[in-house]
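--- STAGE predict ---
source: upstream dedup step, 1 unique chain passed
mode: sequence only
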Amino acid sequence: MPPPVPDLNLLRTFVAVAAVGSFTAAAERLGVTRPQVSQQIRKLESALATQLLRRTTRRVGLTQEGRFLYERCAPLLGDIDSSLERLGNTQPELSGTLRIGAPIDHAAQVIAPVAAEFSRAHPLLKIDLRASDHIQDLIAEGIDVSIRIGWLPDSSMRVTKLADFHQVVLASAGYLARSRPIVAPSDLANQQWIELSLLRAPLTWTFERDGEKVPVRMSARLKTDSPTVLRSWLMAGAGISVASLHAFSRELSEGVLVRVLPDWQLPSGGIFAVYPPGTHISSSSRTFVEFLRTRMHAAR
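--- STAGE serialize ---
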């Protein structure tokens, strides 16, 4: 008796891993987490009672059976996706109301321009953009999709990863001129740190360079739950803090702010689209998120 036909989503995950040779890269391509990819591969191998991938510390390779399956399934899945895309293009125009949640700064700088462009492309659709720097209750507030920045503690949430962002230490030239010299991460412990309380650990940071990791505990006199206030304090020379490199690219290019310790790296964060649990994802939400992802990647 032949093995049962597996879920097509499991095959899509397998094809993605086989194509890029990495669980992490496949997860980014599919917009899911790495543990979800690993789980789906295990399910597929269990359903087929066959090892498809050979894992090493550096790369994921195909077994002979895996290569056989990949070479036959990859073009078939491509044909299926193309057919579904053509079918989707014949569906009715997007309509109703799309409610989007996002942090205030990100809503103003990124989401609002993209939403305006998306609105022009879909004139029957109403868009309600709700900006808040606090975690929004998607069900209670009726939000269709929320854009969140940082780290998601609950991997069971229904999310699509849109992009990564790099964190850097920033200060104004005026502040640096009157502060103690900063030549190593440990020097930051004696600086006027600005604490952004929205972060899960705003006073503890680990810097890395050439494999060396240096944890530093900061001390803050200024504290805020608003990234907008953080921006204002940094530009006014009130102190020093960590912020997104992409979000402050204009201030850096204009010389209003200066990157501190550029040879040291901080952990990267993610930008995610989060959907309400237990509900159908609307076509307007899916279409907007894909539109947003395309625009964000084009801008980088």
